[in-house]
Amino acid sequence: MEDRSNPEISLEVPPYLRVYKDGTIERIAGKQVAPAGIDSDTNVVSKDILVVPERGVTARLYLPNSTAKTTKLPLLLYFHGGAFCISSASDPLYHNSLNKIVAEANVVALSINYRLAPEHPLPTAYDDSWAAIQWVASHAAGQHEEDNENWLRDNVDYDRVFLSGDSAGANIGHYMALRLHALNSCHTKDFKVPGLIMVNPYFWGKEPIGVEISNTESKKMVDLWWDFVCPSDKGCDDPLINPFVEEAPSFEGMGCNKVLVIIAEKDILKERGKLYHKKLVNSDWKGTAEFYETLGEDHVFHIFNPNCDKAKSLFKRIASFINEQ
């Protein structure tokens, strides 16, 4: 008879979660929750809102508390990382770093709580994120006036909407940018997305490149992450994780004018970030692709240590990208 007090583990997905033989999912990381409210360090105020009721999609909305009410600000639509299977907009790591980005860039931010794998297998995260973008676009067009979110209505310049995310969230941002042309025409005149910000993007592939070739243990771990959240016969060459395969959508379809790709020197994913930037520059896309590398740091270091000098420099680079004319 099975010992219910000591359930047997079926699968370990380090360092994120474990799956037990009875189907229970235990998340090891990304479980903490920081309350919304006023951040004393940045004077940024936040609140949690329901974005897409029919899908159960929520978000955390951020506003610089010192903003003059006559000033319309850019909107940053943010997709958090966590390999598609952990974390949330209320994770203290994301909450703290978003407060700092909002203060530095002087923007309104909407951090999306897409549903997680494996309970909600991919492409749920992409579909939830797209539904959130459509929700924002519909409000920009003046629809649903009776339930229009006043922080957005009173403070956002919908001509300056930016997509952004780190790791898996940067991956989502790429595919959301490719979908922008699908927005209903009644939205597009009121809702413009000039740019995409990709921090340490999570892309991968079956065949190792660069440092992936020698770092076999990390390669196996990243392989496992993707196979867990998106089991398919294509494995790590599924177009959702490998945008360079033939079946993946063409970069020419990017629906924004500029992209900022940010990598970290010690990150195992950096080779894919470099390749992404190179492919984008050499594609038929008509926009401008910018590149920024943080030396001496590893994957998403800025959310683990947002007060360090290199994180502050990264936030300033993001702010410059948003606010440059």
UniProtKB/TrEMBL annotation:
GO terms for molecular function: hydrolase activity. Residues 76-302 form the Alpha/beta hydrolase fold-3 domain. Coiled coil: none annotated. SUPFAM superfamilies: alpha/beta-Hydrolases (SSF53474). It holds the Pfam family Abhydrolase_3. It comes from the Eukaryota. Signal peptide: none annotated. Belongs to the 'GDXG' lipolytic enzyme family. This is Probable carboxylesterase 2. It comes from Abrus precatorius (Indian licorice).
